[in-house]
Each structure stands twice: as structure tokens, then as C-alpha cells.
Amino acid sequence: MKGINKGLINSEQIARELLDRDNFLLLGHIIPDGDCVGSLAALKLGLESMGKKAEVLLQDQVPEIYRFLPATAKFRHEWSDDINIKNVVFIDCSELARVGDKIAANLNSSFTTINIDHHATNDLFADHNWVEPGVAATAELIFAVLKDMQVKLTVEMATALFCGLVMDTGRFMYSSTTDKTMNVAAGLLKAGVDINQVRINLFESKTSQEILLIRLALNNIIVSDDGRIAWITLPYEEVKSIGALGIHPESIINYTREIKGVQVGILFREISPGIIKVGFRAKGSVDVSRIAGKIGGGGHRQAAGATYEGSLAEAKETVLQLVKDVLH
Ligand code: 5GP
Ligand code: MN
Questions:
Q1: pTM listed for this prediction
Q2: How far is the CA of 160 from the centre of ligand 1 (A)?
Q3: 3-state SS, residue 46
Q4: Residue to probe by mutation, ligand 1, list 98, 135, 255, most atoms within 8 Å of CB
């Protein structure tokens, strides 16, 4: 698979680099999603199957729904000097800062860095950057690189990658889903993925707190007068009062886009007082990664995000104006 960027730019080259090296630290982004978690798990298992050391470090915890992937139990969440690191591989991170402040503070120039990602807004921060914006999920890239490394795909690796694909493609229904994505999915099923187990864990194992959070979200949804923008607000205190502070379901924002006529859906989630995580979803031609970029974030054309420092009211005013400017 050919890449567009600088350094080692395709799966064959990345595979050779990974095979020639040892002692890897694999990093993902804060508030990790299924693509990030699944890709990390599969790459860790793949490298280990080739006799290499590979540790995964995530600043935030693995969301409950992905913990059925056994490799996630070995993920670390704090930097430790006992990890012998020579090479750092960034997975699904469009910028270095996405790994989180605590992890970023420990990175230094003695490591060789490799960046494997599918965000068009990736700023090519590593020594080697293999970035494929046309690909639906980083999991597709990991599938390709494991193949080029001649790793034997186990059921565990395949299940992890399948979770990544399912989550980043909206169960294979986003426009990023291509015939190649389906071919990768077919390869994963062939390797033994239990689709029933995946579906139950990802979509049919919600906690009561998650249901309360969905109820709160639906209670707080607003549609603009012209019907083209819908947004959900989740204030910190309201989320705290239902015991859902640590829960970040990837599906909540989708209610905005599910409304007929809505072109841009937004989620304003106050993750701590004065820190607002803004999520964007587009239906149609609006490129929300450009809107997110205006407040320091990024992502894809149809799914993007940013972190806004300030009050919820300010975040809403600023962001809704930016969206209106694009729509008019
Ligand atoms: P979500 O709304 O699901 O958190 O994120 C949607 C997309 O936007 C994902 O591809 C994610 O990587 C990206 N994204 C979310 N938050 C941020 C952010 O703060 N900065 C950047 N650069 N991208 C983000
Ligand atoms: Mn992804």
C-alpha cells in the first residue's frame, strides 16, 4: 500500500523497518476509540509474534467495551523508565500532542519515531510518516503492514482490527468505506473473527450509566431554526450527577446526524470544568475537519474534533458561528 508522505511511506517499507528493529513503544491518542485500541492491540500482538518487545502506552484508560480484547489488559497507562524503548510508533494520532500531555513530556529525540495514521490533517511529526487519508481506519493500515511482515494473523489480532474497522466506518456505512475496506473485513472474518461476540461487546453491553448519558444527551439536543445544525450539550455537573464522567460512547454524537436535513452535528462535552471537547459530524459536503482546525483540532471531512478551553457558553457561541459561516 502506497502512502503520500515523508520518510518511509508504504507498508512494505514500514514492515521492513519494524522487522529490522526491536523494543517498541506503541502510542495511541487520548480518549482512545475502537480504531486506536484495536490497531494498538493487533500491532503489539503482531510484533510479539515475531519475537519482539512491544509495549502499549495510553494516557487514558481503555473504554469498557474494548476490554474483551485480551491484549488490552497489558496496556500501560503511565510512563515508566523500566520500559526499554528504542522506537516509538504513533497509531491513529494526527499530531504528536494527541498522545496526551503526560506522555508527550517523556518523549525525546533519542527515539526513532514512526507515525501510522489515516487523518488528512496529520502534520507529519515523526521521522517516518505513513499517512493514508483515503483509508477508512488505521486498522486497515495495520492489516496491510502485518501482512507485509508475514505475521500469521491470529483470531485475537483479527478481532482487534475488526473492532477498529467497525467503529471507524460506522459499521461499514460511512462514505470512507471502500471495496478495499470490505476486502480487509473479509480477510479478518476468514481469520476467525466471531462477529456475534464483537457485536455483543461493542453494541449490546451498555451500562445503566451509559443509558442515562444517552438520555441526558437526547434531552439536551437542539436543532437550529433552519434545521441544518443539531447539537448536544453535556455539562460537567449534569454528567457527574448521573455518575457518567468516565464514559465516552462514540455513538452519542450520531443522534445529531440522524436527524433529517441536518448537515452538521456537534457534541459539546464539558470533560472537566472549563475544558470542552467538541465533536463534529457532517452529512453531505461540509468539511468539518476545516471547522475543527479553526479552533486547534482536526480529523476527517465527516468526523472531526477539537478541545476548547473556556466556558460551555463561549464554546457554543464560537463554534456555532463558525459552522453558520460555512453553511451560508
Ligand atoms: P470524535 O468526535 O469521535 O472524538 O473524533 C472524531 C475525529 O476527530 C477522530 O478522527 C479524531 O481523531 C479527531 N479528533 C477528535 N478530537 C480531536 C482533537 O482534539 N484534535 C484533533 N487533531 N483531532 C481530533
Ligand atoms: Mn481512526
A1: 0.92
A2: 20
A3: helix
A4: 98
pLDDT in tens, 40-84: 999 999 999 999 999 999 999 999 999 999 999 999 999 988 888
Give the Cα separation of 160 and 41 in Å (integer).
6
- Taking CA atoms only, the protein residue closest to ligand 1 atom 18 is 306
Q: Which ligand is nearest to the CA of 167?
A: 2
Residue 151's nearest CA partner among 19, 9, 22, 37 is 19
CA of 304 from ligand 1 middle (Å) equals 5
pLDDT, one tens digit per residue, over 138-192 is 999 999 999 999 999 999 999 999 999 999 999 999 999 999 999 999 999 999 9
Q: CA torsion, points 207, 77, 185, 172, in degrees to nearest 10?
A: 50
CA dist 278 and 259 (Å) reads 19
Condensed to tens digits (0 to 9), the pLDDT of residues 194-241 reads 999 999 999 999 999 999 999 999 999 999 999 999 999 999 999 999
Q: How many other C-beta atoms can be found within 10 angstroms of the C-beta atom of residue 224? A: 16
* 177 CA → ligand 2 middle, Å: 13
Pocket test for ligand 1, best of 119, 278, 291, 300 (most atoms within 8 A of CB): 119
d(CA 252, CA 255): 6
- Does residue 242 register a pLDDT over 70? yes
Going by CATH, does the domain composed of 208-327 fall within 3.30.930.10?
no
Domain 11-203 sits in CATH at 3.90.1640.10
Q: What residues sit around ligand 2, an ion, with C-beta below 5 angstroms?
A: 35, 92, 138, 168
Domain boundary assignment for the chain:
11-203, 208-327
Tell me how far the alpha carbon of residue 278 lies from the centroid of ligand 1, in angstroms: 9
